[in-house]
Amino acid sequence: MKIRFKIWIETDDGKPILGKGGVKLLENIKSTGSIAEAAKNVNVSYKFAWEYVKKIEGLLGGIETKKGGKGAGGTILSEKLDKILEIYQSAEKEIEEVLKKYEEKLNDVTTNT
Question: Which of 2, 22, 48, 86 is in the most buried spot, having the most CB atoms within 10 Å?
Fold first, then answer.
């Protein structure tokens, strides 16, 4: 048996901002410098990725896009956004470790009955 969870960052009034898929997309943008390449890597459309980037920029800031097409453009994440991604990933890892402990307890109970 397994215990699963989902975490996300939301606004004070409960609107979701950043979850696992968004983190994956932003991490890919960070590593490739390209929204198009990141979209391809995480299997979403360029339009979806672009709209998501605009949403994040509007809510959190920290995304700089440079026009120019292949080889000339690019996208850079700010230190602030890097830190937000780190905090999300740290929280996710810590929660996974806690849930793993409870998953082991759950499996002890279910296999010993």
Answer: 22
Q: Supply the pTM of this predicted model.
A: 0.84
Range of the structural domain that residue 62 is part of: 15-111
Question: Is the Cβ–Cβ distance between 45 and 75 less than 8 Å?
Answer: no
28-31 contact pairs (CB < 8 A, 24+): 29/53, 29/63, 29/75, 29/77, 30/77, 30/82, 30/85
Residue 104 lies in a domain: yes
pLDDT bracket for residue 72 (50, 70, 90): low
Query: Does residue 5 belong to any structural domain of this protein?
Result: no
Residue 55 lies in a domain: yes
Domain total in the chain: 1
pLDDT tens-digit readout, 31-42 = 999 999 999 999
